[in-house]
Write the structure tokens for this entry.
Amino acid sequence: MTFAATVLTLYPEMFPGALGMSLAGRALEAGTWSLQTVQIRDFAIDKHRSVDDTPAGGGAGMVMRADVMARAIDAAAPADDPRPRLLMSPRGKPLNQARVRELAAGPGVVIVCGRFEGVDQRVIDARQLEEVSIGDYILSGGEPAAHIVLDAIVRLLPGVMGNEASGDEESHESGMLEHPHYTRPQVFEDMPIPEVLTSGNHARIAAWRREQALKLTRERRPDLLADKDIK
Ligand code: SAH
């Protein structure tokens, strides 16, 4: 089954962009997922084709109009479309691997990319948009956020990652950061690969990796361990 992504944006030419290359690009070509873009401006009502207007109550910047956004959303995803409707927004719930996994298991996503100061609150409420943040910083538009959301999803779709096993050990999949990696050469600038990794003892290697992952997580992201029973 093809995972269907629809992106509503004022800049459809930003897609597929980076998603047309490498893993995601090959999966797009193979039909594992599909990508449709919708130009929000095509749903403008006035002769200037305006999509934004000044904020009610005053203040800086512009706000995306509720009526234009609703028309674009209704055309892209009618009421019976089962796909979750996400609005890229720094006010949203921060995206995490658990939500990415849920989204990847579903039929697809409809992603609304904001610009300017954001979107009129009434369309967020009326079309039940789920606000999703990619982190505590402000982008100039939702498009790079949409790239990130889709990249994270697509790599989990069946058949996309060549080595399926590599997925389970990644940072965040296990609730911990991943252990460090090494490859050739055997000695790099006087630093050899840790001895255990060349021992051929798989149990020792697994124990070492777990220990390293735990140490790294404690140092860098103790918050990840806080609610978990990882010791
Ligand atoms: N005035 C808004 C920020 C608008 S930034 C506020 O303070 O909340 C313009 C657009 O960029 C937003 O509508 C959103 O679609 C996107 N964007 C900016 N930062 C983002 C983030 N951290 N996560 C997801 N989308 C973001």
Remarks:
- Residues 88-91, 113-115, 117-118, 133-135, 137-139, 141-142, 145 surround S-adenosyl-L-homocysteine (CB under 6 Å).
- The helical segments are 22-30, 66-76, 97-105, 121-126, 143-154, 165-169, 202-220, 222-226.
- The chain has two domains: 3-154, 169-225.
